[in-house]
Amino acid sequence: MRIKIINPNTTQSFTDALQKLADKVARPDTDILAVSPASGPASIESFYDEALSVPGVLEEIAKGDREENIDAYVLACFGDPGLYAARELTDKPVLGIAEAAFHMAVLSGACFSVVTTAPRVRFMTEHLVSRYGFGEQCKKIRTTPMRVLDLANSPDEAIAKVVAECVRAREEDHAEAIVLGCAGMSQYREYIEQEIGIPVIDGTVAAVKLCEAMVDMKLGTSKVLTFNWPRPEMAHPGRQLNIA
């Protein structure tokens, strides 16, 4: 099978890290294609950034169905930007890493805390937890004093802040698992888990493995109502989108 990981930002080092990580965890018969859109924000740290990233995400979904023989898609940003719109463009599975991580976290422990980036994204993360129905299991959303790009520019310092906040989540929230709230943290999941001693869930890995399971089970995106194809005058699965 072929799984396309779409990094909605344009920072190539993040995309390269996602490719390397997914190649490591995917099954031998799974082909991973990690891409960034041609245009969009360098990082996603606000609702405005999310909105800017969505056209590129939708173009990559359309291209995957049209040209690349993709079996499933992963949106590798913790805000899951454009997730529901993307599901309208394809009948293949489309998973956001936040939704996938939350589901995996409650299979690992009775409750979890989210450790994410700058305080500005707290409300965005609260919105996701509520939308996906995990309000009872999520103990707390913990932010760290850093920008997303710090994970690329000064990773040692950034991950030290993440680990410190994970320890506080374990000790103060009594969290039984940690969800990493940024795709830029993905490659450090194993190290963080070793440091704190409780399950740490990275949404990219969770989404890749769930995509493999869905393809094996022949489960796609239902087209019966909510995620039916866009109106023909707006887009069509067989026609190139021009979203600007």
TrEMBL record:
Listed EC numbers: 5.1.99.5
Catalyzed reactions: D-5-benzylhydantoin = L-5-benzylhydantoin; D-5-isobutylhydantoin = L-5-isobutylhydantoin; a D-5-monosubstituted hydantoin = a L-5-monosubstituted hydantoin
Any coiled-coil regions, as ranges: none
Molecular function terms from GO: amino-acid racemase activity; hydantoin racemase activity
Family recorded in the similarity comment: Belongs to the HyuE racemase family.
PANTHER family, per the entry: PROTEIN DCG1 (PTHR28047)
Protein's name according to its UniProt entry: Hydantoin racemase
Species assigned in the record: Oceanisphaera arctica
Phylogenetic placement of the source organism: Bacteria, Pseudomonadati, Pseudomonadota, Gammaproteobacteria, Aeromonadales
